[in-house]
Amino acid sequence: MSRRILFVDDDSNVLMGLQRSLRPLRAQWQMEFASSGEEAIHCFSLRPFDAVVTDMRMPGMDGAELLNTIQDQFPQTIRIILSGQSDRESILRSITSAHQFLSKPCDAEQLKSLLKRTIALTELLGNASLKRFVSRLKCVPSLPALYEEVTKELRSDDPSPPASAGSFPRTWE
Fold first, then answer.
1. b/e string for 44-77 if b means 16 or more Cβ within 10 A?
2. Single pTM value for the model
3. 43-46, long-range: CB < 8 A, 24+ apart
4. For the chain, N or C: smaller number of CB within 10 Å?
5. Cβ(40)–Cβ(52) below 8 Å
6. Which among 152, 170, 171 has a CA at the least distance from the CA of 162?
7. Domains of the chain from N-terminus onward
8. Among 55, 47, 95, residue whose Cα is nearest residue 71
């Protein structure tokens, strides 16, 4: 199944570079390119997209505003920021509406890999209501560090508590 991806950047050289570097994926992805946030919203009004990759700093509607609009109107869309602007205020404005943040310059392979992984993840979520639920999450909880340590130890060749743990009381006997 071909996936639709929209790339948004006000710099035509960036868009041409993306077109060139992603050309080998034409059979897998239908890619469109917009030069502004307003143009991107117009593209969304004509047809849905599976993912959007946008710059942050653009005249008129910036990347944070664009992603907020897309999150509200098209919550199932994967939202990625690809930007050279990484100041604290901009990141905080976009953090709730973006799934990923990549800094420019970004290796084309890194972008391809990220898009492939996120698209594959959405394909795993076959149920439409589950997709809607996951796409509206503001953050994804992570496992506690203790859980990670315990599972790592249990997978080791000789799982055992550290010597500093002392002896455990045997109150169950």
1. beeeebbbbbbbbebeebbbbbbbbbbbeebbbb
2. 0.69
3. 43/6, 44/6, 44/70, 44/73, 44/74
4. C
5. yes
6. 152
7. 3-135 (3.40.50.2300)
8. 95
Nearest Cα to Cα of residue 125 among 81, 82, 75, 71: 75
Q: Which residue has the tokens 């391809």?
A: 112
Least confident piece of the model among 18-27, 30-39, 83-92, 148-157? 83-92
**Residues in the chain, how many?**
173
Question: 8 pairs with which residues across the strands?
Answer: 34, 54
Structure tokens of 101? 């943040």
| Res 172 pLDDT > 50 | no
Q: What is the pLDDT of residues 11-33, one digit of tens each?
A: 888 889 888 888 888 888 899 99
Of 107, 101, 82, nearest to 10 by C-alpha is 82
Residue 50 CA from chain centroid, whole number: 12
Least confident of 61-65, 73-77, 131-135: 131-135
